Amino acid sequence: MSRAKRHYLPGYVWHITHRCHKKEFLLKFHRDRKKWLYWLYQANQRFQISILNYIVTSNHIHLLVFCDGEENDIANAIHLASGRTAWEYNKRKKRRGSFWEDRYHATAVATDNHLIKCMVYIDMNMVRAGVVNHPRQWPYCGYQEISGNRQRYTIIDKERWVNFFGEDIRTFKDTYDIWIEEYLNSKNIQRESYWTESIAVGGEDFLEKIQGKLGEKAKGRKILKSKDKDSYELREEGSPYS
Q1: Most buried in the list 52, 66, 94, 181, measured by CB within 10 Å?
Q2: Residue 187: CATH number of its domain
């Protein structure tokens, strides 16, 4: 299996995926999911990142983050959240060995409808898994903040939404709920690999721009039409997340 890639360009939104070692359910306990969220909150205070959405499942995490600073800001944030969670789990369980796969995967996402689709895709993770019927029933995802159900220790940068979408927070919340309901009512609630196995997802012009900026790092990669009729993907080699 190919190692997950960590491409980075400043001023873009990145969809981060990081899974537990060998897909083990090391995040199945409430306390460990809460620990990851706690350390993500701490990372958000320390590093120059804007978190747009997230979810903690039983064996992996998703994080949607904007960064206009150094590459290490994202890497350091994930290192803090994931590293502390793993250390505390192994200490409590008297366990040795890796907690996470060695690298996380990063996919650039266009800041248009693709960004909302990615946010919905993240929040619907446990619905696709058949664990809950609606993201409001899963307390470890960004929907709790987007909907206003969580008021304290919030992580999501809602002001960034205003900058991206030109809507106030209340209007965006209403729009987002419509997208969630449309997804729930669709007949295509399944995993979409381009969100987790590509270098970038968006319109063709967006991908050409990403490909050009990455230069040698994107050499040999192809821009492909995705299953979503309005989307393209700059495909990664192999299948690092499937």
Answers
A1: 52
A2: 3.30.70.1290
Tokens representing 191 are 């995993």
Tens-place pLDDT, residues 17-31: 999 999 999 999 999
Counting the structural domains of the chain, the total is: 1
Full-model pTM:
0.91
